[in-house]
Design goal:
six-stranded mixed beta sheet; alpha/beta; globular; Rossmann fold
Length: 261
């Protein structure tokens, strides 16, 4: 590799600059600065109440920042609505499973594809007759291992399958940046292994930002980890360096890190 190639600037998918969020007198996020590189798998960890979900909501436009900037692929998205940010290539899941329980698995995925495939407000289209839409829906069902459940009502799926369906909806829009909020919460070991394998597969070549309490999941998936404590990032580094960081152990990981290791 040449020196010129070494000096190529790193492309950033998400940039947070001096980000603050207060609710009344309560400061939840305090002066967060963070760069997430294009194509990396970046985890955000921290104790309950650290502000992880609030940070997610600031990035995705659900909350407006009190101060600071959020950039997506170099563009300032501060003040944009969530659907506008989504159409710029960012999609997210939630802590609580967010699907259409009375629609079939197939219909859930198809709904996630409508805007991306330019059906949008074309009410005269009969979606059942759109071959390209059906084929792409089938491809995603195969990708998330739910083809056999295509005609089941989403609300009848097992919990891990519902989470897999939500991930399928999340990727259906073709986003390059995927944000997952505790995708493995409440799962058994086997369910967790299934979802981690699925996340690894469907985010290949994309940027992943994940919040998760299961340290096994984090150290298995992440290229880099940021530790959020009381609304501030106290460290950002590779998993081995985070594991060895005394300040992180004292503030958050402690004995659970030794158990995971």
């Amino acid at each position: 590799m040449s020196i010129a190639e070494d000096l190529q600037p790193v492309q950033l998918a998400v940039e947070l600059e001096n980000l603050d969020k207060s609710f009344g007198l309560a400061e939840i996020i305090r002066n967060v600065n963070l760069n997430i590189e294009t194509g990396e798998r970046h985890a955000i960890i921290g104790p309950n109440g650290a502000g992880k979900s609030t940070l997610f909501n600031l990035i995705t436009g659900k909350y407006a920042a009190t101060r600071g900037l959020v950039r997506l692929n170099g563009t300032d998205i501060s003040g944009l609505k969530p659907y506008e940010i989504n159409r710029m290539g960012l999609s997210r899941s939630f802590q609580i499973t967010n699907i259409f329980p009375k629609m079939t698995v197939f219909e859930n995925i198809r709904c996630g594809l409508l805007w991306k495939m330019n059906y949008r407000y074309s009410f005269w289209h009969l979606v059942d007759r759109q071959r390209d839409l059906t084929e792409r829906t089938e491809e995603i069902l195969e990708q998330i291992n739910l083809s056999a459940r295509r005609d089941n009502l989403a609300g009848t799926l097992a919990y891990a399958e519902q989470r897999a369906l939500e991930i399928g909806i999340t990727i259906a829009g073709g986003a390059d940046i995927i944000m997952l909020d505790e995708p493995c919460a409440g799962m058994s070991t086997s369910e967790t292994e299934y979802i981690v394998g699925l996340i690894r597969q469907v985010t290949e070549g994309k940027t992943l930002v994940i919040v998760e309490h299961d340290m096994g999941v984090i150290f298995n998936l992440a290229d880099r980890i940021s530790v959020l404590v009381y609304g501030e990032i106290i460290a950002t580094d590779t998993p081995p360096n985070i594991r060895a960081n005394a300040s992180v152990q004292e503030a958050y990981l402690g004995s659970s890190l030794e158990e995971d290791g």
